[in-house]
Prior knowledge:
The structure holds 2 protein chains of 2 kinds.
Chain A: H1 4-17, H2 23-42, H3 47-58, H4 61-71, H5 87-110, H6 113-116, H7 126-149, H8 153-160, H9 162-172, H10 180-202, H11 221-258, H12 264-290, H13 298-322, H14 326-329, H15 331-354, H16 370-400, H17 404-431, H18 437-465
Helix pairs in contact in A: 1-3, 2-3, 5-7, 5-12, 7-9, 7-10, 7-12, 9-10, 10-18, 11-12, 11-18, 13-15, 13-16, 15-16, 15-17, 16-17, 17-18
Chain B: H1 5-22, E1 25-26, H2 27-37, H3 49-58, E2 62-68, E3 74-80, H4 82-107
Antiparallel strand pairs in B: 1-3, 2-3
Helix pairs in contact in B: 1-4
Amino acid sequence: MFDLESQIRQWKTHVYSTGSIGQNDMEELESHLRDSMDELTDRGLSTEEAFLLAVRRMGDIEVIHEEFSKISTEDLWRQLLVPTDNPITARRNRKELGIVIGLALLGGLLSKIPALFGYGDMDVYSLLYLRNASIFAFFPVAIYLIWKRSLPILRSLLVLSIFPSGALLVNVYPSYEPHHTGLLLSLHLPMLLLFVLLYFFGGPAINREGQPLYATGWRNPNTRLNFVRFVGESFIYAILIGMGGMVLIALTTGTFDLIKIDAFPFITAWIAPFGFFGLFIVAAYLVIQKKNLIESIAPVLARIFTPLFLLVLISLIVAFLITPNQAYENRNMLIWFDIILALVLALTLYSMSSKDFSSNNASAKSQITFWDFLSFGLIISAVIVDTIALSGISMRLSAYGFSANRTAALGENLILLVNLLLLCVGYVRYFLQRQTFQAIVVMQMRFLSVYGVWAACVVIVFPLLFGFR
Amino acid sequence: MHIPKDLVAASATPIVLSILQKEDSYGYAIIRKVQDISDNQMAWTDGMLYPVLHRLESAGFIDSYWKESLNGRRRKYYHITEAGIDECEILISQWDIVHRALHRLLHGKADD
Lengths: 469, 112
């Protein structure tokens, strides 16, 4: 027996599942379907025939959905965390929100593990917390990505085991005064773990049958570029939410102070760690939620700061020419050089990600813009600054010998120099129209692996090499 | 005869606006009307009309209201606005130019 109502319900579920069609639109479409069926049954068709024909006349739902989503792009930003009137999407969103809240709590709980072993005081054991911080913060994000991307469980668990083994490593390694290898390790572990997140973000590069997946997977340059965007956006979100959290904490302490209750111990022991380690997963969730909805902020910031940083670099070079011995004698200056260079690389990455290079057609040639020249200028001046830094480092190396910090700085600056030079070559070839912009992006995304390997090196080998000092 | 997608898309707006200029109507009736006046030659997929209607509504050329029909079914009726009437006039004069040009090519300038 043909059950019309249940058939219509099924059809509605199917229409809803595309996501862009809301309840009002659905009611309109349903009323249309019923009108259409009425006419067909009047002509003598059975209910079932009329239903099938009416659905056929309605057309391909995918295409309709596409048309609908084109109109509603202006309204899309509202969908970010605003309840949608599409019931299936709404249910999925609720479930996801539940998982995210759970994972945020997990981050906080992880950060309480050291307390179980008697290392509860964050001020006394700050280096221990610093070493483990990226594990507490990124582990929930990894779980979330595995769930979100429905990755193959077995392989994901294998890669996920990097987290516990990393935790084991950093806590088994001793750290002696002056704790340089310990600090270096704390700074490089997040870089390494970002690569693990990249794996979960892109998914495996080979499928179950062992065939390589070229179009997707974590090795694909496009996936990596998207991951770079994802990290940048999450970072900005995390900062915004974190600032909000700090205001909230200040308000809470202040108010409890008025009624003579000292809330500070409770806040530092529970609220702050749960807030901080839950921050990253929440930021990641928000970015993934809105990814298709609005243009990202990181490329906008990159555009604002590219010309400004160019000025900073040029003034640095000029300052160095006027007072050349500064860079050699002051080790703090070298550290500042390195921070600026890292930011320059980030700027280049994000201006890259905002450039529309996808079209490989004839118009690609005319796409060379003012911004490309600006990026190129930035890279050139970064090469000069990096050379100055390297000469400073080698002076210090020859004067004081190899220490953990100096070796790390040497390695990083060398890798950076190679990267910047490759970018220079890429841009020149692009300006001469010998290669597309896509080629620069592919090169840069592949080069990211070098940073991953280097970070692993600093985390695993350096402490052994320099006697855990 | 099959009418290509681009032509359907381009002609949809003036046709829908002209239909609504006669009287308020709802999606299903508009589709049937189009089939009627084109002797079934312009077969739109039913579902594609709604994105067009929504676009016109957000452009302010039409507005909409819900009304119950005699058999108790709720229908969304569309009503043309002042801006819609102006827009319709412009579009139709554009189509007239194209139509006249084609006509002259086929029949010579004499009949003008």
